[in-house]
Amino acid sequence: MSVPTAPQKSADETEIQIKSPDPRPGAPPEYSSSFVPGPPGPAIPPPAGYPGGLPMGYYGPHQPSTFPLYMQTGSIRPIQYQPGKYPAPQLSAPVVWMPVPTPIPHCPPGLECLAQLDNIHVLQHFEPLEMITGFETNNRYDIKNNTGQMVYFVTEDTDDYTRNAYRTLRPFVLRVTDCMGREVMTMQRPFRCTCCCFCCPSTRQELEVQCPPGVTTGFVAEHWNLCRAVYSLQNEKKEDMMGVLGPCSTYGCGSDSVFEILSLDGVSVIGSITRKWNGVLSSMSDADHFEIHFPLELDVTMKAMIFGACFLIDFMYFESSPPQRSSIHHD
Q1: CA-to-CA dists, residue 42 to 62, 64, 257, angstroms
Q2: Model's pTM, two decimal places?
Q3: Which of 4, 97, 115, 247 sits CB 3.0–4.6 Å from 300 for a disulfide?
Q4: Hey, what's the signal peptide range on this chain (predicted)?
């Protein structure tokens, strides 16, 4: 004979009765307030090698006052790398180039930026190795506008022997590249012997400007003068178009050196090439800074000629040669 028993409840019904009456899903169960903490457990000895316990900032499961390493405790932060062994990478500032304008009619390709400017800065790179060792290296220049945007990059292309044998009188080739790496202009200076009479035409310095490379745009020709630097800006037929008149003393110590750009009749001042004084750096190194001014509406080919005259002036008057050791010994 079966004895009647209380109806058995399913597992789901039992779970519902145990759960908290809180209708929110996943709510934690209510704990009895009559909970009494038990006696403290046995003391755990500190780890080997650390007599006072774990170092600060290290996590121990039996030390309630410690935190994991990835958590910040006040101003203490985890060390990412050992100083001196894994140095943080130094990110150089990105070069900001002037936006390339649309092609302009009758403008040589690559000179569109120059056509829209009335002022540019020519900044020569400082070469500490050249100053220390006396070994002449290829010159490099950054061409920037007034806002500091890069317009062109100029590099000298001369072999080591020519640079160090002829120094400031060396023949050279300067290559002007734009933001896309295209060579948009080339400047060439032939060698001129200076051992002859100073008034002889064969001793006068000259610079040819090609824009685009291979197509002669004009020449920068030196004229003899007793106390001033005098040049003429010529077209491809070597016809004078403008003049350049320098100061009486081009080696101005403590002041800028201004070379005026004159009209063909020599009356009007059209622009200027100014070598800025950079303090001690100007007297100890070749890191020159030139500022060129010309009218905005001036023909872009003439702007290129003024631009080329700046480099001939730099090599003739401001490219200091390191002192050479004499092979003659005096008793």
Answers
A1: 11, 15, 87
A2: 0.67
A3: 115
A4: none
